[in-house]
Design goal:
- The protein is an all-alpha fold and 332 residues long.
- The protein has a single domain, classed as Alpha/alpha barrel (Mitochondrial carrier fold), CATH 1.50.40.10.
- 77% of the residues lie in helices and 0% in strands.
- The protein contains 12 helices and no strands.
- It is globular.
Length: 332
Amino acid sequence: MVMQTEARVGVSSGHGVASSSHRLTQDQRSHIESASQLLAGGLAGAFSKTCTAPLSRLTILFQVQGMHSDAGALRKASILHEASRILNEEGLKAFWKGNLVTIAHRLPYSSVNFYAYEHYKKFMYMVTGMENHKASISSNLFVHFVAGGLAGITAASATYPLDLVRTRLAAQTKVIYYTGIWHTLRTISTDEGILGLYKGLGTTLVGVGPSIAISFSVYESLRSYWRSTRPHDSPIMVSLACGSLSGIASSTATFPLDLVRRRKQLEGIGGREVVYKTGLLGTLKRIVQTEGARGLYRGILPEYYKVVPGVGICFMTYETLKLYFKDLSSKL
């Protein structure tokens, strides 16, 4: 409507050329805004993952311990012991093992995730008729939850093979079966077929949907409440704090599903025995039977250590870059 009004004013005042130029500029701004959202989301995800890569690897190693370990070995496991083992046996760089593929996965994943969330959110507000009205807290929470869930499912589906590769590279310790991203993709395709690249996708989507839904809805709700009660606090610090809390909430709620996802992704490596031959519920039941209820949260401590700074950094970086790109585009 604003564009059309400005165009009519331009024509009536004899500035048709200027008006046409303005319409072109508006179209360009729309493309720049979309590109900025994608870039901000991708860089935020890659940066936060690189910062927390050591803890991410520790989480994965703890999650898969129960697949081929006896009860005695599991009782001896500790974060400090595992970190010392990696440092002594594999060196400092090993804490970032698989980080290249993590970035290769996280850049498109985070880009799609944030971009899809913004658009699903706009769509939900439009469909529910809340776009031009002041919505209640519960209505906003519903929109953020659904939009976040759909965004997580979209992003996970689009980038899943890279997530599988990342898990297998990070889980390697003494025996090196995969040597890099392309080698891993080729080996999985050869040994397990093309569908092997999507092993564990169903469990992933069951976990990722609620996880991202909780993360976005908790983040948006906390940030909205914080800004309404303390409007003068730094937006960057507010995003960092609210992002960290949202990460704790989503991880606690969906960690058992993430644990099953990791173990499913590692089934059949190098011809090893398939441990879990049932679906999600059957796998959860077997873990409880063999490792106890605590087995469902194996690796939750390094996960918290990773999530608190990781999700906070991700949201903070995204919001900061979004404001930077918005300010940059306004000067063009």
